[in-house]
Fold Hydroxymethylglutaryl-CoA synthase.
Amino acid sequence: MTVTVGIDKIGFFTPDHYLDMVDLAHARGEDPNKYLIGIGQSKQAVIPPTQDVVTMAANAASQILTPAIKADINMVLFGTESGVDNSKATAVYLAHLLGLPANTRAIELKQACYGATAGLQLAADFVRVHPTAKVLVIGADIARYGLRTAGEVTQGGGAVAMLVTADPTILALDAISSYHTADVMDFWRPTYRTEALVDGKYSTNVYLDFFKTVWADYQAQTQRSIADFSAFVFHLPFTKMGRKGLRQILPEADEPQQASLTAAFEASQADNREVGNLYTGSLYLSFLSLLRHGTLVGGERLGFFSYGSGAEGEFFSGVLQPDYRSGFDDDFLTRQLADRQAVSVAEYEAIFQQQLSNDGRDTQLAVGQERAPYYLAGRQHQQRQYRHQATN
């Protein structure tokens, strides 16, 4: 008997401050349209020192986990390239913060922006073998390139949390996917750096080449064509990048489908445009944005392109389920984005410099204004001090 496996619930968190790209453009002496149109970004999440990938993941996961679901979690797979320790997994910190059972397997996965997709596929394979299992998959990152750098406009951050189960509410994953790996130096962050190094134009070209490669291989494996899809969801380090990917395959569709696929892409990039780059979470924020703003119906097949620099790409697909809207809290997500407060460029620059130091000294962070349920209070004796508002 074939087990239907996929995404049952999905949550998203980003901190409550943002930078307007028009303000950044003016401060950097650029035409705002270079950012708004050329890059395709309107706002950028500003990450305070009291939020890291662990706390953001906890804030996202808490939206979808009831006490009963927590008791049934078998595994946590945490995709990130912004880990807080070179040895201890972010998933272990997260499992403790959320109060998950002690017999939970907790692992951190790293391959640039691809990590959460690795987690999703490993989770799906696990549930196919263990149909009663529930797996929590996280994509959480803080995209940092540095102040006044070419990549500054593509910064951001946040976390996406997905519950993978049998008989999912949102999306049933197809078993076949296509993946491709090559040793490419388009983006990397050595252990001695807090900001990434990137060759932006080269990285875009690699991204587009990988998409063509895995899309062609997927078609060869499945005998499906573009006509079998209602939407394509892309990893979006910036929204213009996904638009370039879609345009590569649009000529394969007739004119009515080209129009519908383009409309679906616009829906999928709406929330990313307001948040910026999530690295491992970007593809799945795009998916959530499509669910929130698109005009989909159950039974439609969606295509996904995941890409992680360095480089690894994968194309996979899934069938939307009839009651998919009950798998996320649309009103909460709308309020979360709408209630954020703008910061000035000077405030953003100050916050950017306030991350925990790398010298290991004890630090008490200013947490009096922290509104998120989970936050980082500081560091004592070389250990991060995580807190939950309800327990203080």
